[in-house]
Amino acid sequence: MTEHTVPASELYTESFAADPYPVWARLREQAPVCPVSSPRFDSYLITRFDDARDALTDPRLSKDLYGPGEHYLRIFGPNSAELNKNMLNSDPPEHTRLRHLVSQAFAPRRIEALRPRIAEVVDGLLDKIVPSGECDLMREFAIPLPMVVICELLGVPEIDHDRFIGWTQVIRTSGSIKRSPEEERAAVQQAQLQLHDYLADLVQRKRTEPGDDLISALIDACDQDGRLSERELVSTTFLLLFAGHQTTADFLGNAVLALLCHPGQLDLLRERPELLPNAVEELLRYDGPLPVASPRVATEDVEYDGMRIPRGSIVGVVLNAANHDPRRFDDPDRLDVRRTGPHLGFGYGVHHCLGVSLARMEALIGIGALIDRLPGLRLAVPVDELRRLPPASPFRGLLELPVRFTTGR
């Protein structure tokens, strides 16, 4: 295969942000392992389903970005070390140790016990929305729902929830506000530092006043037998907080938009609500919130589809491209809530999303309630006027989702 490096400027444009799937389709067919050059770092993108699944379990593609080369500096910036030294950026056995410490909190039976509380949060948010006949579903529903749930699971006081939303939204929406690169970096770094300082302080408070929450359980693991360092404790808390709401919020927005753009599918769900669990999986396959899996680094020369990826290269597995691969899915660009079959929306292998049960439950309850309580749900603006996260964002989501619906039933 002939290597042709693609400048990131050819990929990450406004039109790409609106609809990246034609670009992914072109790369999948013409350059399934594609070198991409950008100002911050060069990488290789893998876009075919079978290659992607193999890469997600390839031990030669390390998730530990903190070893030789300090790849985390190029990817995350100078403030990343304190917040990103966690199981997401580690390999076994470190990953195994860290994941085991938090996995119990996300066991299916424990998540099932959260069902009444999640339903209560959903109903509370909708009680505020329903009388108005219109709202911004991102700001008033998709973002606060998973934030409240993960904050309560971690043990973050309710009085601080709005602060968390503020800090995480600065990081999430980086690049969406017109300001200089220096101002942008300063704003993100300040939000990261504020989050780190708050979490470090919260950990100290939980040490003297522990509760029935995940942070207190992690502190116990840290203090009782040293299975968790102080840095790992704060970083793991940050990961659970950010990952526990960011992707779910973006997924809720993407899912509702997909249904509004496919009214026949929305009507089908109204007629057959038993299809909702299947629909959640299809909506995640169709337009997932994490287009590219978190970065890996090649610890030796590797080869995919005849393309050599040199040792030390950063590798991105394009989940959303793989999930539209016609080699795996029939008519992959068609939304069909009756479709069955595995996808890569939650990742694959040892780094498969830890919070999958929680994300599924929030989506099931949240989307089901929206369909039930917001009759006549429709976009309030043309779809091409919707504001999205910046093209270079690692997430795929909406900045806002203005909708209208019928009041009264």
Structure description:
The protein is an alpha+beta fold. The chain has a single domain, classed as Cytochrome p450 (Orthogonal Bundle), CATH 1.10.630. 52% of the residues lie in helices and 8% in strands. It is built from 19 helices and eleven strands. The chain has helices at residues 8-11, 14-18, 21-30, 49-56, 71-76, 80-84, 94-103, 108-113, 115-129, 137-142, 144-154, 161-172, 181-208, 214-225, 230-261, 263-271, 276-286, 319-322, 356-373, and strands at 6-7, 33-37, 43-46, 61-62, 134-136, 296-298, 302-304, 307-309, 314-317, 378-379, 402-404. The strands form three sheets. The protein has a six-stranded mixed sheet with strand order 1-2-3-9-6-4. Strands 5-11-10 form a three-stranded antiparallel sheet. The radius of gyration is 21 Å and the shape is globular. The N and C termini lie far apart (60 Å).
List the helices and strands and how they pair.
Elements: E1 6-7, H1 8-11, H2 14-18, H3 21-30, E2 33-37, E3 43-46, H4 49-56, E4 61-62, H5 71-76, H6 80-84, H7 94-103, H8 108-113, H9 115-129, E5 134-136, H10 137-142, H11 144-154, H12 161-172, H13 181-208, H14 214-225, H15 230-261, H16 263-271, H17 276-286, E6 296-298, E7 302-304, E8 307-309, E9 314-317, H18 319-322, H19 356-373, E10 378-379, E11 402-404
